[in-house]
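> example.struct
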């Protein structure tokens, strides 16, 4: 009986990786619908700069550029790396020459595989200003 129910739920679930996890269970691994009192994450305005998450540790700048170049002229592609180890932190940025290229890049690569990992592409949000640092008292001591 339980197997039949699981099969029915899986068959009725919509396709796609994001929807797969939220439709099989009501709260695993995330709630299927956000709570009403939680603020929604603001959507970024369309721009030529894309934020790409879910990258493999082995993804390089050149590999990211080649993958996104299928959808438009890539001006710059960068995988953010850890300073100490030099490995990818799992995200990066791709800048296109046009808005149309950026939109095509999102449409073509969001939820697709790159180096064996599912990646997600979206418009990059502008960096927020960091809080001001507290004043330093004293100075350099020898």
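> example.seq
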């Amino acid at each position: 009986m339980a197997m039949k129910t699981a099969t029915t739920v899986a068959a009725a679930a919509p396709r796609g990786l994001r929807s797969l996890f939220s439709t099989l269970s009501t709260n695993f691994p995330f709630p299927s619908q956000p709570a009403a009192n939680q603020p929604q994450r603001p959507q970024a305005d369309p721009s030529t700069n894309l934020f790409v998450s879910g990258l493999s540790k082995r993804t390089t700048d050149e590999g990211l550029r080649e993958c996104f170049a299928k959808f438009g002229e890539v001006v710059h592609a960068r995988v953010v790396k850890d300073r100490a180890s030099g490995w990818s932190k799992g995200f990066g940025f791709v800048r296109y020459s046009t808005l149309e290229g950026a939109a095509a890049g999102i449409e073509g690569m969001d939820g697709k595989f790159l180096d064996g990992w599912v990646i997600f592409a979206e418009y990059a949000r502008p960096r927020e200003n960091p809080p001001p640092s507290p004043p330093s008292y004293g100075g350099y001591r020898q």
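> remarks
The two ends are 75 Å apart (CA to CA).
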